[in-house]
Design a protein that fits this description.
The complex is a heterotrimer of chains A (197), B (242) and C (82). Chain B is of the alpha/beta class and 242 residues long. Chain B is 19% helix and 33% strand. Chain C has a five-stranded antiparallel beta sheet with strand order 1-4-5-6-7, with no helix packed on it. Chain C has a three-stranded antiparallel beta sheet with strand order 3-2-8, with no helix packed on it. Classes of the chains: A mainly beta (197), B alpha/beta (242), C mainly beta (82).
Chain lengths: 197, 242, 82
């Protein structure tokens, strides 16, 4: 059985009533990564949605931004217990991206440059709940934070906000992505503390 | 000898400054099964709210007994090392998991072993800890194998186990920021040429152990291969920070 | 943070294997290379530990430790002990 180590308090984390259970507020923005950081030039970046017919809907950098950037302020919650409140982001709403995508399938696998995947129900991406994000805190996204483009799904734990976003594939079932296979919860709602399976 | 890893409660019996940024910590671990030279252990700290942090540290001591010696370098902004270097006190208890690691270890040749290969140890900064364990285990065993340590370090004040190393043969230093007075060469990062000059050559077929920060280990390992050492002769252990 | 190597897998895997798992060999599902787990490239942070093939970067193993439980996934490797 573990015992408390005299004099150890970790990083001195601040709690806040506005946070989901088990979360603490941080002022910095921790970087977590499972491999080498991809370096993608915006000129080379593209995003594709593949539906069940195999149709690929594709946007390059300019085409994606032309759908309409919006400025939003959201809270983000990492399953590793840190949260940031009132963070400003700029991105394109998934509602705009999915406007002309027709699919019978209810689930999405988001794909990143470098091979990362994460699964999200389509319902969790639409109706103003998610964005394709280009900027955070008023600056273009740094590669270590998922730049040039990442997914932003603030109402779920932040591992669902896939960094280095390159595309989405429609799925008929909620198949687990990288971390979901490795031990993390299939859905990831921070308010229900859906952390692990 | 197989020494299975398990969780132990350790009591701090001594702490002393090792360098301006590092501390030697001596632990009494009654349930310790002993450890091979080069092994490591995981220390787990628990905060009052239940939060836990765990980090791996190489063990500076080796052999039988319940006395375990660590030398911990403080990582600026780290979560665990600043606690171990500044807060941990004599009498405190910590949990540790070990001994761990069967890959990056050295054992004295057994009676009847064929002529063992010479050993080249290459350390970058705090990477010297497991290599020091190997070098001192080798000396304690009265083993006749040829052993050399090439130790890359910032300044003379940053040398770990200075007194102990001074009493041993076969230690070469590379000072990267500041040299001792009268040192024949200027301070500077290790180069391929310096490595070639100080390390046992490929013709001697040495077993090589390289330990230190990841960039140091990878640069040195690549040079060793270029210098003709087979990859199977080179064992590496990369240290991170925090 | 810099990557580490497979030596750090010894601790998390000690509870699951009766031997030092870093001395097991892993065959990479990406490129077929067979190497000691100790030589894998390991990325480790608060999410978990990810071991990648040193030759081709394919994910060999993931380890997640939380709340006193451990999840081990071998999405891209076959281990050989002995």
């Amino acid at each position: 059985m573990s015992f408390i180590t005299r004099g150890f308090s970790g990083r001195g984390r601040e709690r806040d009533d506005r946070l989901p259970p088990g979360q603490t507020l941080v002022e910095d923005w921790p970087v977590l990564s499972a491999g080498v950081t991809p370096q993608i030039d915006p000129e080379d970046w593209s995003f594709e949605i593949t539906d069940e017919t195999g149709t690929e809907h594709r946007w390059n950098w300019d085409q994606m931004q032309a759908l309409g950037l919006e400025d939003i302020t959201v809270d983000i919650h990492c399953v590793t217990h840190w949260s940031k409140l009132g963070m400003s982001w700029r991105g394109v709403s998934l509602d705009k991206v999915f406007e002309n995508v027709e699919s019978e399938y209810d689930y999405v696998m988001a794909h990143s440059y470098g091979g990362y995947t994460t699964n999200i129900p389509l319902d969790d991406l639409l109706d103003g709940k998610a964005w394709i994000a280009f900027e955070a805190n008023g600056e273009p996204l740094d590669p270590e934070h998922g730049g040039p483009v990442r997914l932003l799904v603030p109402h779920l734990y932040f591992w669902k906000s896939a960094k280095w976003l390159r595309g989405m594939t429609m799925m008929p079932t909620d198949d687990p992505g990288f971390w979901e296979q490795s031990g993390y919860h299939i859905h990831g709602d921070p308010w229900l503390e859906e952390r692990y399976w | 000898m197989r020494r299975p890893a398990s969780w132990h409660v350790a009591t701090v019996t001594e702490v002393a400054a090792e360098t301006p940024t590092a501390r030697r910590i001596v632990l009494d671990v009654p349930t310790w099964p002993g450890n091979d030279a080069g092994s490591h252990l995981d220390i787990r700290l628990t905060a009052p709210d239940g939060y836990q942090a765990q980090r791996s540290y190489s063990i500076a001591s080796a052999g039988e007994g319940t006395r375990v010696v660590l030398a911990v370098d403080e990582v600026p902004g780290g979560e665990v090392s600043p606690f171990l270097v500044h807060e941990l006190s004599v009498g405190d208890q910590v949990e540790l998991h070990g001994p761990l690691g069967a890959f990056f270890v050295w054992r004295a040749p057994e009676q009847g072993d064929t002529m063992p290969a010479p050993v080249q140890l290459i350390a970058g900064g705090s990477g010297v800890v497991p290599l020091y364990a190997m070098l001192s285990a080798h000396a304690a065993a009265g083993d006749a194998t040829e052993f050399r340590l090439l130790y890359s370090v910032r300044t003379p004040a940053d040398v770990f186990f200075r007194q102990e190393l001074d009493a041993l043969m076969g230690v070469d230093y590379i000072y990267t920021r500041q040299t001792p007075e009268g040192w024949p060469s200027p301070a500077g990062r290790i180069t391929r040429e310096a490595l070639a000059a100080a390390a046992l050559p490929a013709e001697r077929s040495p077993r090589i152990f390289v330990c230190g920060p990841t960039p140091f280990v990878e640069t040195v390992a690549n040079w060793l291969v270029e210098l003709g050492h087979p990859t199977t002769s080179i064992r590496t252990e990369r240290f991170g920070g925090s | 943070m810099q990557h580490l190597d497979g030596n750090v897998l010894a601790g998390p895997l000690a509870e699951l294997f009766a031997f030092d798992a870093t001395m097991a060999s892993a065959r990479c599902g990406g490129c077929g290379a067979v190497e000691l787990l100790a030589t894998a490239m390991v990325y480790r942070d608060a999410m978990g530990t990810v071991a990648r093939c040193a030759h081709c970067d394919h994910v060999l193993m993931t380890i997640v430790e939380a709340n006193g439980r451990t999840w081990v996934s071998l999405p891209g490797a076959v281990l050989r002990a002995g």
